[in-house]
């Protein structure tokens, strides 16, 4: 097996796709004509968004939507970049909320955390061992 998709359930698929394009510089792969599903071109593993209503059809007993949680979920999307400070500033300018400013970690990475308007927790980090 290999990891194929990470799908985040969001209130507005088009808005999340547009935000990720602007904030993180990733390209739109496609958005379904229904507006309930879309994908970004992020490399070997696809980052996708699905509408909350689609999630409700999959999970009739309910689920925790990141957009409705006052705290970030215990799950993150990480983007590796040579310049965490620049990526962090770009994300904030696009509308993300700062959770942790860029910080050098003892293991050698620089790391920051932001929360997207749709509630998604995003880590920006330098490559491990860089």
Biggest β-sheet, characterized?
4 strands, mixed
The CATH homology group name: 2,3-Dihydroxybiphenyl 1,2-Dioxygenase, domain 1
Give the termini separation: 29 Å
CATH fold group:
2,3-Dihydroxybiphenyl 1,2-Dioxygenase, domain 1
- Helices and strands, in order, run as EHEEEHEHEEE
Give the overall form: globular
The quaternary structure here is: single chain
Strand order of the largest sheet: 1-4-3-2
Mean pLDDT equals 95
Radius of gyration: 15 Å
Number of helices: 3
Total strand segments? 8
CATH class identity: Alpha Beta
Quickly give the CATH architecture.
Roll
Spans of at least 5 consecutive residues with low confidence? none
Strand content: 25-35%
Could you characterize what this model shows?
It is globular and about 45 Å long. It contains 3 helices and 8 strands, in the order E-H-E-E-E-H-E-H-E-E-E. The protein is 23% helix and 35% strand. Helix 1 (13-24) runs antiparallel to helix 3 (84-94). It has a single domain (5-125), classed as 2,3-Dihydroxybiphenyl 1,2-Dioxygenase, domain 1 (Roll), CATH 3.10.180. The protein has a 4-stranded mixed sheet. It is an alpha/beta fold. Strand 7 (110-115) and strand 8 form a beta hairpin. It has helices at 13-24, 52-58, 84-94, and strands at 5-10, 27-31, 37-41, 46-51, 77-80, 97-104, 110-115, 121-125.
């Amino acid at each position: 097996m290999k990891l194929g998709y990470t799908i985040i359930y969001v209130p507005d698929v088009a808005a999340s796709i547009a935000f990720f394009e602007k904030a993180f510089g990733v390209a739109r792969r496609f958005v379904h004509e229904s507006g309930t599903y879309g994908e970004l071109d992020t490399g070997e593993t696809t980052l996708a968004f699905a509408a909350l209503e689609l999630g409700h059809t999959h999970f009739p007993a309910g689920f925790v939507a990141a957009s409705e949680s006052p705290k970030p979920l215990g799950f993150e999307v990480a983007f590796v970049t040579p310049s965490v400070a620049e990526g962090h500033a770009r994300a904030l300018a696009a509308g993300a909320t700062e959770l942790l400013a860029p910080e050098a970690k003892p293991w050698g990475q620089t790391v920051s955390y932001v929360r997207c308007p749709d509630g998604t927790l995003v880590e920006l980090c330098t490559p491990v061992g860089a």
